[in-house]
Structure formats: structure tokens, C-alpha cells
Amino acid sequence: MAAFMSKLSLALFLSSLFLHAALAELICEDLPKSVCAFSVASSGKRCLLETSVAGDGSVSYQCRSSEVLVQRISEYIETDQCVQACGVDRNMIGISSDALLEPQFTAKLCSPACYHECPNIVDLYFNLAAGEGVFLPNLCESQRSNPHRAMSELLSSGVANGPIPAAYPPATAASAPSA
């Protein structure tokens, strides 16, 4: 009877550990660098990989929570299959819509393996594109039918602004105010 109770106690203890692990929250700051980017915390906030420089000049990487809330995804670590299919890099510091200007990236993002199978990454770039005035489904449709037109549409949307023109002509010796 004592052996049975001992085994039962051990089984209950192990079950409680598994239950605790199942109920644990996913916190960005607790994630290792290798899975930080493209993860979503229990709070629904996206995780970002950031760098910090120590006093001796050494650089370290830290996973941090962003202020960006994801609507339908939480407690999520992106799969390696999606990272590869979508052409993203887990070692990316920060995130930018600039990747949308690269035809190879847009082709991978819009591929069926990414667009239909990786909603977390697609949601992220959908929002980045929207912030630039681009509707990602239209960009992907253009990418599939005519990749060159897709890039020209993206460039004309204002994502890639050219140099800012000077408001005033540069001062010359003749036009400079006298002191």
C-alpha cells in the first residue's frame, strides 16, 4: 500500500508540473533570441529582438514586448517552417516595411506556403503595408500576375519616398542676409 501511495504521489506531483507548464504565460522578456522575433506573448503583444550596448562596447540581444497588440493570436512562437517559407529572419532587429520593396521577399510573403499557412507573419506585414497605404492582398495579387507592376505600384504608394525637396533655395553669398 505504501508503494502505491508513493507512486500515486509521484504521479500527482508530475501532473501538477505539466499543468503548471501548460498554464504558464509566454512572456517576451523570457524568450531566447532564437525564437523571439515573430512571437506573440500571452498578453497579445508582439515580441521584438533589440540590441543593447554594454559599457565595454559589447552588444547583447534582448527580447522585448512591443506595444503592438495582435488581435487574434496570443501565446504563439512562429514555426521554423513559416520563417523559411515567408523569407523572414529571426535575427532581425526591429521591423520595417522596407522589406516589401524587395521583390524576392514579396514573392515569398505572397507565396501560398506563407500567405495561406502563416497567419502571424502575414498579419504583421499586412499591418506594415497598411501603414504605408498598401493593401497586402492587392499587392500579392499584383505580385502573382505581374511582379514588375507590383513593385511600381508599391513605389508609387509612397512607401519609398524620395529625397525631401528643400523648402527654400540654398543661401548664396549674394542672397545671404548681412549681419
Tell me what you see in this structure:
By secondary structure, the chain is an alpha+beta fold. It folds into two domains: 53 residues, no CATH class; 82 residues, no CATH class. Helices cover 44% and strands 13% of the residues. The chain is built from eight helices and four strands. The strands form two sheets. The chain has a two-stranded antiparallel ribbon with strand order 1-4. A two-stranded antiparallel ribbon has the order 2-3. A hairpin with a 5-residue loop joins strand 2 and strand 3. Helix 7 runs antiparallel to helix 8. The C terminus is likely disordered.
Average pLDDT metric: 78
The tally of beta strands, per DSSP, is 4
What is the string of helix and strand elements? HHEEEEHHHHHH
Q: How much of the sequence is in beta strands?
A: 5-15%
- Separation of the first and last Cα atoms: 102 Å
Helix content percent band: 40-55%
Catalogue the unreliable spans: 8-21, 159-179
Largest sheet: 2 strands, antiparallel
Radius of gyration, taken over Cα atoms and rounded to an integer in Å: 24 Å
Task: Please outline what is shown here.
This protein is of the alpha+beta class. It has two domains: 25-77, no CATH class; 79-160, no CATH class. Helix content is 44%, strand content 13%.
